[in-house]
Amino acid sequence: MVVDAFRMFQLATQGFCCSQIMLILGMDELGKENPDLIKAMQGLCGGIGRSGKTCGALTGGACLIGLNVGKGTPSEFGHAKINLMINELMEWFEGTQGSIDCEGILDHSLDAGNEYPVQCGNIVSATFSKVQEILAAYADPDEDEEE
Protein backbone atom coordinates (compact mmCIF):
# COMPACT_ATOMS: atom_id res chain seq x y z
CA MET A 1 0.00 0.00 0.00
CA VAL A 2 1.23 3.47 -0.85
CA VAL A 3 1.34 5.82 2.12
CA ASP A 4 -0.73 8.98 1.90
CA ALA A 5 1.97 11.68 1.98
CA PHE A 6 -0.55 14.34 2.96
CA ARG A 7 -1.71 12.24 5.92
CA MET A 8 1.90 11.80 7.05
CA PHE A 9 2.57 15.53 6.70
CA GLN A 10 -0.61 16.30 8.60
CA LEU A 11 0.42 14.00 11.47
CA ALA A 12 3.95 15.43 11.56
CA THR A 13 2.65 19.00 11.72
CA GLN A 14 0.37 17.93 14.57
CA GLY A 15 3.51 17.02 16.51
CA PHE A 16 3.53 13.24 16.09
CA CYS A 17 6.88 11.55 15.56
CA CYS A 18 7.91 8.65 13.33
CA SER A 19 6.99 5.81 15.70
CA GLN A 20 3.62 7.40 16.44
CA ILE A 21 2.92 8.02 12.75
CA MET A 22 3.69 4.39 11.92
CA LEU A 23 1.06 3.20 14.42
CA ILE A 24 -1.50 5.85 13.51
CA LEU A 25 -1.26 4.84 9.84
CA GLY A 26 -1.58 1.18 10.80
CA MET A 27 -4.52 1.86 13.08
CA ASP A 28 -6.16 3.88 10.28
CA GLU A 29 -5.91 0.81 8.04
CA LEU A 30 -7.51 -1.33 10.73
CA GLY A 31 -10.25 1.23 11.33
CA LYS A 32 -9.15 1.60 14.95
CA GLU A 33 -8.12 4.36 17.31
CA ASN A 34 -6.16 3.98 20.52
CA PRO A 35 -4.81 7.25 21.96
CA ASP A 36 -3.15 5.41 24.87
CA LEU A 37 -1.14 3.27 22.45
CA ILE A 38 -0.12 6.37 20.49
CA LYS A 39 0.96 8.05 23.74
CA ALA A 40 3.07 5.01 24.61
CA MET A 41 4.74 5.16 21.19
CA GLN A 42 6.13 8.61 22.06
CA GLY A 43 8.75 6.83 24.14
CA LEU A 44 10.26 5.56 20.88
CA CYS A 45 10.46 8.99 19.22
CA GLY A 46 13.77 10.16 17.86
CA GLY A 47 15.49 6.90 18.57
CA ILE A 48 14.03 6.11 22.01
CA GLY A 49 13.60 9.28 24.00
CA ARG A 50 15.25 11.38 21.28
CA SER A 51 18.56 9.70 22.11
CA GLY A 52 19.37 9.14 18.44
CA LYS A 53 19.52 5.39 19.00
CA THR A 54 17.19 2.83 17.33
CA CYS A 55 15.06 4.67 14.75
CA GLY A 56 11.40 5.15 15.64
CA ALA A 57 10.32 4.17 12.14
CA LEU A 58 11.93 0.77 12.71
CA THR A 59 10.66 0.30 16.26
CA GLY A 60 7.27 1.61 15.17
CA GLY A 61 7.30 -0.90 12.31
CA ALA A 62 8.08 -3.73 14.71
CA CYS A 63 5.21 -2.57 16.93
CA LEU A 64 2.93 -2.39 13.90
CA ILE A 65 3.72 -5.99 13.05
CA GLY A 66 2.94 -6.87 16.66
CA LEU A 67 -0.32 -4.93 16.51
CA ASN A 68 -1.37 -6.96 13.50
CA VAL A 69 -0.21 -10.45 14.46
CA GLY A 70 0.91 -10.37 18.09
CA LYS A 71 -0.62 -11.83 21.23
CA GLY A 72 -2.97 -9.42 22.99
CA THR A 73 -5.01 -11.50 25.40
CA PRO A 74 -4.33 -14.64 27.48
CA SER A 75 -6.43 -16.73 25.09
CA GLU A 76 -4.78 -15.43 21.90
CA PHE A 77 -1.73 -16.79 20.16
CA GLY A 78 0.65 -14.53 18.27
CA HIS A 79 1.67 -15.46 14.73
CA ALA A 80 4.16 -18.33 14.90
CA LYS A 81 6.61 -16.37 12.72
CA ILE A 82 6.28 -12.93 14.31
CA ASN A 83 9.96 -12.82 15.28
CA LEU A 84 11.00 -13.81 11.76
CA MET A 85 8.80 -11.03 10.41
CA ILE A 86 10.34 -8.43 12.72
CA ASN A 87 13.86 -9.65 11.97
CA GLU A 88 13.14 -9.44 8.24
CA LEU A 89 12.04 -5.84 8.75
CA MET A 90 15.16 -5.04 10.76
CA GLU A 91 17.50 -6.59 8.19
CA TRP A 92 15.74 -4.75 5.35
CA PHE A 93 15.85 -1.49 7.30
CA GLU A 94 19.54 -1.71 8.08
CA GLY A 95 20.30 -2.74 4.51
CA THR A 96 18.43 0.20 3.00
CA GLN A 97 19.35 2.86 5.59
CA GLY A 98 22.87 1.70 6.41
CA SER A 99 22.10 1.82 10.12
CA ILE A 100 19.25 1.21 12.54
CA ASP A 101 20.11 4.31 14.60
CA CYS A 102 18.83 7.81 13.91
CA GLU A 103 22.35 9.15 14.43
CA GLY A 104 23.66 6.80 11.75
CA ILE A 105 20.91 7.72 9.29
CA LEU A 106 20.53 11.47 9.74
CA ASP A 107 23.30 14.00 9.25
CA HIS A 108 22.41 15.97 12.39
CA SER A 109 21.44 15.31 15.98
CA LEU A 110 17.83 15.03 17.09
CA ASP A 111 17.88 17.55 19.90
CA ALA A 112 14.56 18.97 21.05
CA GLY A 113 14.92 22.00 18.75
CA ASN A 114 14.98 20.07 15.49
CA GLU A 115 11.76 19.65 13.59
CA TYR A 116 10.64 16.36 12.06
CA PRO A 117 13.15 15.96 9.18
CA VAL A 118 11.79 15.42 5.66
CA GLN A 119 14.15 12.47 5.35
CA CYS A 120 12.27 10.82 8.22
CA GLY A 121 9.02 11.06 6.26
CA ASN A 122 10.59 9.12 3.41
CA ILE A 123 11.89 6.50 5.84
CA VAL A 124 8.51 6.17 7.55
CA SER A 125 6.78 5.79 4.19
CA ALA A 126 9.19 3.12 2.96
CA THR A 127 9.11 1.27 6.30
CA PHE A 128 5.32 1.31 6.44
CA SER A 129 5.20 -0.15 2.93
CA LYS A 130 7.73 -2.83 3.90
CA VAL A 131 5.67 -3.77 6.97
CA GLN A 132 2.61 -4.18 4.74
CA GLU A 133 4.64 -6.33 2.34
CA ILE A 134 5.89 -8.54 5.18
CA LEU A 135 2.42 -8.92 6.68
CA ALA A 136 1.05 -9.94 3.27
CA ALA A 137 3.88 -12.42 2.70
CA TYR A 138 3.24 -14.16 6.01
CA ALA A 139 -0.56 -14.05 5.85
CA ASP A 140 -2.19 -17.39 6.44
CA PRO A 141 -4.37 -18.16 3.40
CA ASP A 142 -6.54 -20.45 5.58
CA GLU A 143 -7.46 -17.46 7.78
CA ASP A 144 -9.09 -15.73 4.81
CA GLU A 145 -11.24 -18.78 4.16
CA GLU A 146 -12.46 -18.90 7.77
CA GLU A 147 -13.68 -15.30 7.83
List the defining traits of the structure above.
147 residues; mainly alpha; 8 helices; globular; CGCAxxGCC_motif; Redox-active family protein; Multihaem_cyt_sf
Question: What does this 3D model show about the protein?
Answer:
This is Redox-active family protein. It comes from Candidatus Desulfosporosinus infrequens. The chain is mainly α and 147 residues long. The radius of gyration is 15 Å and the shape is globular. The protein has one domain. Helix 2 packs antiparallel against helix 3 and helix 2 crosses helix 7.
Please describe the biggest sheet, giving its number of strands, its sense, and whether it closes into a barrel. Answer: none
Mean pLDDT: 88
Number of domains: 1
What is the radius of gyration computed over CA atoms, rounded to a whole number of angstroms? 15 Å
Low-confidence stretches: none
Structural class: mainly alpha
Quick one: overall form?
A: globular
Strand content: under 5%
Number of strands: 0
Number of helices: 8
**What string gives the helices and strands in order?**
HHHHHHHH
* Helix content estimate: 55-70%
Q: How many angstroms separate the termini? A: 22 Å
Organism: Candidatus Desulfosporosinus infrequens
InterPro entries: CGCAxxGCC_motif, Multihaem_cyt_sf
Pfam family, one: C_GCAxxG_C_C
Protein name: Redox-active family protein
